[in-house]
Known about the structure:
It is a single chain. The protein is mainly alpha-helical and 50 residues long. Helices cover 68% and strands 0% of the residues. It has one helix and no strands. The termini are far apart.
Amino acid sequence: MTPPTAPPTTTAGSPPRRRGLIAFAWLWVGAPLAYGLYELVQKATQLFTG
Length: 50
């Protein structure tokens, strides 16, 4: 009996179109997240220093 084989993987990475989509998705989520964290830190410092 032969062991199951893993699905084929590419070592060259994602195609350029998919890379752009992935970068866009990270920006779509990351930009508001970064802004929210920035605002959180600003409000927390005001809360604990004032």
